[in-house]
């Protein structure tokens, strides 16, 4: 089951690489079951021994798993993910809103990527696509606008658990950390950045395994030393 910490979580200082976030725990998933997730996917997930197993490493394998709670303001989302096979495609959708209600309209979506380009959200993509490096992209929807992209020279071996952290400052700024290393940052400079909505795990043609998904509410500021993103 998914542990709901709600308003009772005490604030704590959460280290992520050289950053130190003043955070209030909201959620932690132990994956005893999937009752708190809504699946839009061609490859249904399952849970085994506290792990979410998502076998989408097929030619038509793709989809999104929504956490059944809406969030707002600055957030830190962390999880351990193991890319097992396929394209090693690890995506996160954040601040997703739908005019008809996101969870109320889930039956109208199949998990096709283009379906998520039509309503407000951010998509962070982290994948190898059979290359010897990781490709990172930050996009804004609706419209599938590319905010920023980079290539990171870090280990691409499959079967390796990776601790991933996503920082959203609630004002258009976002960052991706992998195993404590800042991989890339981006900023949505539009006049109205997304600030509230749902969080979704997403993949394409990959088998992924997740553990220990956590969501924290953040104060607007973050205590940190100098960031050093990995070079292209």
Account of the 3D structure:
The chain is globular. It has strands spanning 2-4, 12-16, 19-29, 37-41, 46-48, 51-55, 62-72, 75-86, 90-96, 121-127, 134-141, 145-152, 162-168, 173-178, 181-187, 196-204, 206-218, 223-224. It contains no helices and 18 strands. The strands form 2 sheets. Strands 1, 2, 3, 5, 6, 8, 13, 14, 15, 17 and 18 form an 11-stranded antiparallel β-sheet that branches. The chain has a single domain (16-221), classed as Jelly Rolls (Sandwich), CATH 2.60.120. The protein is mainly beta and 232 residues long. A hairpin with a 2-residue loop joins β5 and β6.
> Which percent range describes the beta-strand content?
over 45%
Q: For the CA atoms, what is the radius of gyration?
A: 16 Å
Q: Based on DSSP secondary structure assignment, what is the total number of beta strands?
A: 18
The pLDDT mean sits at 90
CATH class category: Mainly Beta
Elements, N to C (H/E): EEEEEEEEEEEEEEEEEE
Largest sheet descriptor: 11 strands, antiparallel
What structural class do helix, strand and pairing data support? mainly beta
Spatial shape: globular
Work out the helicity level.
under 10%
CATH architecture name: Sandwich
How many helices in DSSP terms? 0
């Amino acid at each position: 089951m998914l542990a709901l910490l709600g308003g009772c979580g005490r604030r704590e200082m959460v280290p992520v690489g050289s950053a130190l976030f003043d955070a209030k725990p909201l959620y932690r998933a132990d994956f005893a079951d999937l009752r708190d997730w809504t699946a839009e996917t061609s490859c249904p997930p399952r849970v085994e021994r506290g792990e979410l197993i998502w076998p989408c490493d097929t030619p038509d394998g793709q989809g999104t798993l929504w956490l059944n709670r809406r969030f707002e303001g600055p957030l830190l989302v962390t999880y351990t993910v193991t890319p097992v096979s396929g394209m090693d495609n690890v995506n996160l959708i954040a601040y997703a809103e739908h005019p008809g209600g996101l969870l109320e309209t889930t039956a109208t979506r199949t998990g096709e990527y283009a379906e998520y380009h039509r309503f407000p959200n951010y998509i962070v993509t982290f994948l190898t696509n059979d290359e010897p490096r990781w490709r990172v992209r930050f996009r804004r929807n609706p419209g599938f606008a590319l905010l920023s992209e980079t290539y990171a020279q870090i280990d691409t071996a499959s079967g390796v658990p990776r601790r991933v952290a996503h920082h959203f400052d609630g004002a258009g700024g976002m960052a991706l950390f992998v195993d404590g290393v800042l991989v890339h940052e981006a900023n949505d400079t539009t006049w109205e950045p997304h600030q509230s909505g749902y969080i979704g795990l997403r993949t394409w043609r990959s088998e992924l395994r997740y553990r220990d998904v956590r969501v924290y509410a953040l104060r607007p500021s973050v205590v940190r030393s100098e960031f050093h993103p990995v070079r292209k």
